[in-house]
Design goal:
Elements lengths: L5 H6 L3 H10 L14 H8 L2 H7 L15 H5 L4 H7 L15 H8 L2 H7 L15 H7 L3 H14 L7 H9 L9
Length: 182
Amino acid sequence: MDKVDIFSAVERKNLRELKRILKSDPLAARRTDCWGRTALMLSCIEGEEAFVRLLLPCSDAMAADRDGETALMLASFGHPGCVELLLPVSEPMARDGDGWTALMWAASSGSERCVALLLPHSDANAATESGLTALDIARTYDQQARAQQIRRHMVETGDTGALDAVAVAAAASGSPGSAAPV
């Protein structure tokens, strides 16, 4: 068998080869590809929990690629198992180059579980460089159920800074109007 680099092992989903690489060179987990991504980041993109578990002890979970995206942000786009593994060792409020947080990524993906995992660790009122909040992003990406989930969390926690009074009342009552744009 040809010798495989860490990125090829992840891309080929070859867990045995990844274990071999990390056993002989644990620092390989900190190497980056041409986009500045680590093997941990690539594993998060693919939602490969077993790879994330294996790489996490050898990796810098807070490393960012050339766009400022962290492993948690990449996992937040629909891979809740990876989000659960990363939350204890990551900064959910970290921002990428456009000012997006992991919650914003989750809101755009429509992943109910990712949004639920991130909300208690995030500021739902945080805004991107262009002024969009996670709530705005959910609506922009036609993720109305996620918008309602975020809105409901904001009301339940009293963190209603980005909501107007009509939206607060609608979210609190659970009325169908709570999915309407604010």
